[in-house]
## 1
Amino acid sequence: MAKKFADDEIDEVLNSIEKFDSDGIRFIHLKDNVKKNFVKTKIAEFKLKDILVFLDENGLVQRIPFDDKPGFHDMTLYRISEKGRKLVAKFIRESREDWSKNSYLANILCQNCGYSYEIRIAYSEAVKTWAKSQRCPNCAIKGSLSTKL
């Protein structure tokens, strides 16, 4: 059975490792980093170890042991892999972007005139429900919007 972690916990650990790029970060420093008050999400040491195992098994980080002994040594080095870098890049957003944790991006197409655009829709609404009550910004026909495939 796979362990489940909160997205913000995985994000916090990946971002902490990613800050050090190709130099990597030692386990002892990473452990201190995710337990301090300035971090968004505080993570206990036992959970950090589980997250690191999960990230290593899925190829998101590279684990470089300090010596040949198995387990978590304080001087074990962690580097973000190319796969991990790509994942972090997907969630980076610029300050000019209209982004809200309460919404998701949807590609909308008008069935009447063919006009398409992107819009953020609140998580509390489904696209189909939202589209029924909206008018197309191009032709002003109500209820002609659907998701663009």
## 2
Amino acid sequence: MKYLVVGLAGLLAGCAGMAPLEFSSAEQYAGYPVFVGSEGGKCRYGVQDMISMDGNSLFNWMKGLPEKSRQIDLVLDSETEKCVGRARQLMIKAGFTDIHLRKFGDLTYTSGLPPG
């Protein structure tokens, strides 16, 4: 229990200063999709045709994109707070600031496939 409290305190401290993500409406402009999910208790991400990336792979891909001002949509089929928070941290670390949360199915993305 002690480790859980210490871990939770560390997680909350890491999120200090970040506004909470809320789901964007389906009418709002679609951004660059990053599909967020979990597989076997581990966070997995999908970008374009790369449908099962870990956090390091996602960060390296996003860091290499040249246009950091573009909108990023974190798209999920079920709410996985841990994975959404991690994805958001990775996007910020890669240099993106316009990050939105979307429910899978609200929009159709031609540049990405959801994790299978």
## 3
Amino acid sequence: MPSSTSAPVPPMPSQIHITPSLVSAAYKLSLRYGVFWRLRPEERAILLLARRLRAIKSLTLREAILRILEKVWPSKATMIKAYEEGLKILARKIQLALAIGAIQVAEALRRATHGIVLALGYSYQNTPLFYRG
């Protein structure tokens, strides 16, 4: 039986960070494609003001920006959601591995790369609702 003397690995982030540079890129993209003028006035205000912030910490503002990103930059919004779903799935896999005593498997899962997390998230998003666990 393997010993659990190895140092615990710090937990993975629970969500991807929405940065002002990402909001600024979405703003420029919305102007380029004319989507900016199809947004509601409050969504335009959020897009304009959020790019001036140092950091976006508020969950409410983060959710509002994600809703705006779905309209302005759908592929980026899908990628962010896939990454967050992938992190949740990876956390469940680590818990399961620890529950059955597979410590080495859990440590290997904790070292998963960005691509693996995205692949897990995209595969979950593309699975029909009927088959999701």
## 4
Amino acid sequence: MKNFLSILLLLIMAFTNATANSNTDTDTVYTYHDAARNKYVLNGNKLEYTPIKASESSSGIYSGGTYASKVITEKESQELVQLFKAALANKKAQTGKNIKPNTAVEINVGNKKISFMLKAAAAINISLNNFLKQLIKH
């Protein structure tokens, strides 16, 4: 009986950890601001694009276009999350300078927020930017 309870307890703990770990990415919101400060937000499988208005741009003329929101596939979402994670892990691609054409990234997990800037010419930044643009267009 004691062995049975021990095994049951182990199974419950394993299931609880697996469930908690599988929800981590779905509870996380990823935000990317491109060089013009247009905003992309990934929340689960929902991707939103919020462009800046001409009145908000540094030139007073540039507009990022029109707002878009779409549901992306699970595969696309996972690929995008991996790019965000790679950007977070790549300290050489990050900078403390909040200047154009650098970009800004924010990752929110519950009430924890991680923010950092990416160098414009960093390969991970270019990959992330291109993939976001591709996803929102199609």
